Q: What sequence folds into this?
């Protein structure tokens, strides 16, 4: 059986162990791109909860992979200290984001939208776990980061400058899909079940998150209002994984930023991204094929 | 025993009184090495210390040099107790122990520089280097010299301080027979000119007889002085002395003494 | 051991060499290569080139066999990328990143070396310092410096300091321990000879102990240089946006395998070159090393 990676998987991660009908082992990786070499070498079947960069990189490096599922759209937040009131104040400040992550891409986009040049800020490449101590000790002035770190920063006195929806998708290698479509389908069915449960009874999710983040359960709904679990029925809509949809557009934008920097040779076009999205397993769920 | 010489030595020279010493091996076991060693060496006297291997000759010499203190008894030089090394008591070791990071000249000048007497010692250093036959090698490093040449540098390095007492621990033992003879002749020559007091440790009876005024014979460990033999061949001496009948006779009697002692 | 044949192969070679210099030359026919400094140089260079050619050839074959540049790019692809990165004069360029890393190494390694020698000498000069620091250094030595990374961010922030600290932590213990060993290993007779020639404590330290311990200390300084290059990636994991280690990490994120190779080869080359420079410095500072002097 292939191995499976969950980078920031909070929602499904703690419940993956309860998968009953397929045997799978999980590995934690910090960011999606870090898992790509493992997929390339065939050691990993797929990765859950990755953002757009791995899709763009996978395309540029000719790694045959497919996006088969989207779990949730998580808020990725630029949290900064009190001295920074607006984008203009970011100049000369130390802002962190995990290198190569959605956070870094969002930071670049945000600066470009607000006419702040990349060189004007002092970008700090820090891994998610290192961001919290760095912020608390005053070594950085802010970070563009997802939960739980964004919550910890808000708790440490930071405030939100902007929040972007970060898609969390599941990818599988083409080879694995060809060889074990049944396993992929079983996995997707389990994910669908988890998501439906979470949508119906959000309290069970808050409880699990509160324990993981060591925060009072009552604060969570307020801290994470924008966190949306993707309803299975809408997964193929333009809001999510649909052709030319929000996700596909963001992959193209990400690819263009990376290509411009020279990190990857070329960015995918929107139709090329559409090709990388394979919704057959999700459609099977809505068609009632999970038993 | 030569009573008159001993009496003279008391205040001017070297005096060892009731020296006993033991080494512990670090595991609480102690070995007695010296048991009541007493002797005196008069001013300008050349005395050889002989005895079987391991009897404590080097230990005695180290005490006179000030490298270690005896557990019992004391070493006095000019009536004063020896507690630390001093430039007045020069040492020539069995190996040259030259400093490879210094050229020959700088090795010889090590003592004068340490003593702050560099300026007034320059000429003497050059003279000594010439005297030991190493003119032209001043700027060589020790490892560019042969073993015998290194020994000659070591001798010059010690003599340049004009020590009143010269302590030599089997200085020529590691040399081949021919070089050893050359070095003995050189030592005799130099000594006749500089005339300091010498305490000379050797294994070689012939060497002892050729060089010394007296020979002190130590017994087996724990060592003490077993015999004090006067060697009064007239000076200046040279290598031909070994063919002298008196030399031959004295050599065989010392040999007999050694053999008796070791049985 | 002046008179005995030297036990180490190195010293034995030197002896053979010096015999040749002294004129007891081996018959010309039996010598395959010219001897002496030039001969050594030619021989070393020739063997180096052969080894490199062999590695490149095997690499090429393996690259063709794998046929996947994400896994193993061919030497040609790597050379192209190296060319590209060399001509890139900006922040992503090889020259810039090599410079940044070289400076980090010089400061981190240099700081570790200075601290190591100073602490080492303090340790042999004072029993209390030795008793206190020796176990601490021995305990701390096996801990990979990267393990300190999160702490270093908290203590020293995210600037250059934590990088110097990681490099310093890798170099300091080996230099300190070797300094202690080298000073303790100084032939006691050299010190006794100096004392009976009239040298005081400080004079013995300056003119005998330090020069005598120098060869041992210099070897550890060279080893430390190699170690500091091998912890470069670890040092540049924390909050870096430049340096060869960062370049490799960054390339890894984007599956840019040729750049990873360029980074690795550059680190290897720089480590090799700095080692050569140190060897020359060593030969100049301690020309007597291995000459069997005592
Ligand atoms: N530092 C030391 N620690 C322990 N034992 C020692 C030490 N130095 C000498 N000894 C012991 O003391 C005894 C006398 O040693 P010493 O070197 O004085 O003998 P020696 O008469 O000079 O011998 P040789 O003629 O072989 O040089 C030997 O048995 C030796 O093992
Ligand atoms: Mg001895």
A:
């Amino acid at each position: 059986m292939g191995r499976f990676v969950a980078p920031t998987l909070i929602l499904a991660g703690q419940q993956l162990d309860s998968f009953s009908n397929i045997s799978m082992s999980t590995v934690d990786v910090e960011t999606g791109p870090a898992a790509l070499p493992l997929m390339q070498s065939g050691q990993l079947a797929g990765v859950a909860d990755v953002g757009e960069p791995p899709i763009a990189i996978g395309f540029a490096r000719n790694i045959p992979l497919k996006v088969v599922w989207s779990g949730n759209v998580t808020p990725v937040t630029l949290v900064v200290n009190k001295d920074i009131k607006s984008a203009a104040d970011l100049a000369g400040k130390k802002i962190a984001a995990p290198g190569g992550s959605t956070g870094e891409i969002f930071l670049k986009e945000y600066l470009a939208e607000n006419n702040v040049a990349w060189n004007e800020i002092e970008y700090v490449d820090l891994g998610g776990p290192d961001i919290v101590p760095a912020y608390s000790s005053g070594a950085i002035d802010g970070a563009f980061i997802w939960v739980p770190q964004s919550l910890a920063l808000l708790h440490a006195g930071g405030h939100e400058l902007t929040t972007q929806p970060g898609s969390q998708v599941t990818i599988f290698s083409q080879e694995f899909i060809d060889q074990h479509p049944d396993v992929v389908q079983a996995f997707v069915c389990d994910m669908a079940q988890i998501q439906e449960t979470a949508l119906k009874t959000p309290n069970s999710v808050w409880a699990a998150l509160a324990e993981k983040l060591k925060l009072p359960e009552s604060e969570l709904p307020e801290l994470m209002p924008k966190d949306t679990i993707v309803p299975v029925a809408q997964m193929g809509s333009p809001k999510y994984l649909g052709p030319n949809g929000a996700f596909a557009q963001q992959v193209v934008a990400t690819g263009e930023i990376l290509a411009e920097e020279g990190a990857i040779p070329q960015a995918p076009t929107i139709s090329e991204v559409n090709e990388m999205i394979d919704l057959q397993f999700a459609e099977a769920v809505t068609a009632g094929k999970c038993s | 025993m030569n009573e008159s010489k001993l009496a003279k030595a008391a205040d001017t020279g070297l005096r060892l009184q009731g020296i006993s010493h033991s080494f512990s091996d670090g595991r609480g076991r102690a070995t007695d090495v010296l048991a009541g060693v007493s002797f005196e060496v008069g001013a300008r006297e050349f005395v050889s210390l002989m005895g079987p291997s391991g009897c404590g000759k080097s230990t005695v010499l180290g005490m006179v040099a000030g490298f270690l203190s005896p557990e019992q008894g004391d070493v006095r030089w000019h009536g004063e107790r020896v507690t630390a090394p001093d430039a007045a008591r020069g040492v020539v070791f069995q190996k040259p122990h030259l400093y490879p990071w210094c050229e020959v000249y700088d090795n010889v000048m090590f003592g004068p520089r340490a003593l702050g007497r560099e300026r007034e010692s320059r000429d003497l250093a050059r003279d000594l280097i010439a005297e030991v036959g190493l003119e032209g090698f001043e700027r060589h490093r020790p490892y560019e010299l042969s073993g015998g040449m290194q020994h000659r540098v070591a001798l010059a390095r010690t003599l340049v301080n004009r020590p009143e007492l010269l302590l030599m621990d089997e200085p020529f033992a590691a040399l081949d027979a021919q070089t050893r003879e050359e070095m003995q002749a050189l030592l005799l020559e130099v000594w006749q000119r500089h005339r300091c007091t010498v305490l000379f440790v050797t294994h070689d009876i012939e060497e002892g007889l050729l060089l010394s005024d007296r020979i002190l014979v130590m017994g087996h460990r724990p060592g003490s002085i077993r015999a004090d033999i006067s060697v009064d061949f007239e000076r200046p001496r040279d290598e031909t002395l070994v063919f002298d009948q008196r030399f031959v006779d004295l050599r065989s009697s010392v040999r007999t003494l050694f053999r008796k002692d070791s049985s | 051991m002046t008179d005995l044949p030297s036990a180490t192969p190195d010293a034995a070679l030197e002896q053979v060499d010096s015999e040749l210099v002294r004129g007891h030359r081996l018959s010309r026919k039996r010598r395959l290569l010219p001897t002496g400094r030039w001969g050594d140089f030619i021989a070393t260079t020739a063997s180096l080139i052969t080894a490199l050619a062999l590695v490149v050839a095997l690499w090429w074959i393996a690259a063709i066999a794998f046929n996947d540049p994400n896994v193993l790019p061919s030497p040609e692809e790597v050379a192209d990328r190296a060319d590209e990165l060399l001509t890139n004069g900006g922040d992503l360029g090889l020259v810039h990143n090599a410079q940044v890393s070289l400076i980090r190494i010089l400061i981190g390694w240099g700081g570790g070396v200075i601290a190591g020698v100073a602490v080492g000498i303090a340790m042999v000069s004072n029993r209390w310092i030795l008793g206190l620091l020796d176990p601490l250094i021995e305990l701390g030595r096996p801990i990979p410096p990267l393990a300190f990374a999160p702490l270093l961010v908290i203590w020293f922030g995210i600037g250059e300091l934590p990088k110097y600290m990681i490099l310093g932590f890798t170099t300091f213990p080996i230099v300190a321990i070797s300094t202690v060993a080298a000073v303790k290993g100084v032939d006691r007779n050299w010190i006794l000879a100096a004392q009976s020639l009239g040298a005081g404590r400080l004079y013995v330290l300056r003119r005998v102990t330090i020069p005598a311990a120098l060869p041992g200390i210099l070897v550890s300084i060279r080893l430390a240089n190699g170690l500091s290059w091998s912890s470069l990636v670890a040092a540049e994991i924390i909050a870096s946006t430049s340096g060869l280690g960062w370049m490799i990490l960054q390339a890894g994120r984007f599956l840019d395998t040729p750049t990873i190779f360029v980074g690795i080869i550059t680190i290897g080359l720089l480590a090799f070159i700095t080692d050569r420079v140190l060897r020359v410095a060593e030969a100049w500072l301690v020309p007597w090393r291995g000459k069997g002097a005592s």
